[in-house]
Amino acid sequence: MYLKNNMKAFLKTTFFSMVPITRLPAGSASILKYHSIGESTSPLSVPPHLFAKQMQYLADCNIPVMSLSDLVARLRERKDCGGAVVITFDDGYRDNYSAALPLLQKHGFPATLFMITDLVGATENGHAYLSAGELRAMADSGVFEIGSHTQSHPRLDRLSPEGARTEVQGSKAVLEDLLGREVRFMAYPWGAYAAETPAIVERCGLDAAVGVDEGTVSTDSPLYTLPRNSIQHSTSMTQFRGNVSTAIDSYIKVRGCVLRR
Ligand SMILES: [Zn+2]
Question: Which sequence spans correspond to the domains of the chain?
């Protein structure tokens, strides 16, 4: 697994530095997945100055940044995705409030945050998570939509259907109570779901769900397993440009051929 991941990272860096970076066509969109925005050396933490550079790139290139609500509305109406980028954050790190919100506000970019509800106001493994007040302030800012990332961050494919339903419905209810607004989206912890999970999520009243498979979204994309492209500590600007362009889909095709051998 370690070697396979290293090979994937090497392939991606090499590939994105070689292929032309072409804007996403109107028919597709790229959903980006962030976690923490901070100075930690954790692989999931993007330093604030790099996050600022990435947002500036989107602004300089006039790449439309769309909310997940707008993207899902377009998908439901089978309208094109506008060649847009959608920004999302998983888990609910406190630095999303202190470091990401001001930068997003500066550019007028919307974003979605998927909160683990058992961790509201908690500190775990040295990570501080958003308090109820911060979550409310983020939702009230008009920048953030708050979505569910379950109650306890389990792999939903390892739970019974009833267990999965409790995690999804429970976290949706907690957030709706806390925010006083409807929670419409969720992200699967670890990107893991069983065959029946998307239907459970739909029955819980959510409008769409996102995973961790890479690639762009198009009008054919399944609403309850939308792909996302991960931006991490190690993501270079070359890789970032690749993730918001047609290069990401070309890379997935090449990776499929190489890793199948
Ligand atoms: Zn997570």
Answer: 25-260
Q: Does domain 25-260 have CATH number 3.20.20.370?
A: yes
Q: How far is the CA of 115 from the centre of ligand 1 (A)?
A: 8
Name the band, by pLDDT with cuts 50, 70 and 90, for residue 206.
very high
162 C-alpha vs ligand 1 centroid, how far in Å? 21
Q: How far is the CA of 15 from the centre of ligand 1 (A)?
A: 27
Ligand 1 centroid from CA 241, angstroms: 24
Crossing angle of helices 161-179 and 132-140, in 10° steps, is: 70
Q: How many C-beta neighbours within 10 Å does residue 13 have?
A: 16
Instruction: Name the β-bridge partners of 65.
Output: 85
Predicted confidence (pLDDT) at residue 160 exceeds the cutoff of 60 = yes
Please give the distance, rounded to the nearest whole angstrom, from the Cα atom of residue 88 to the centre of ligand 1: 11
The pLDDT tens digits of the residues spanning 76-86 come to 999 999 999 99
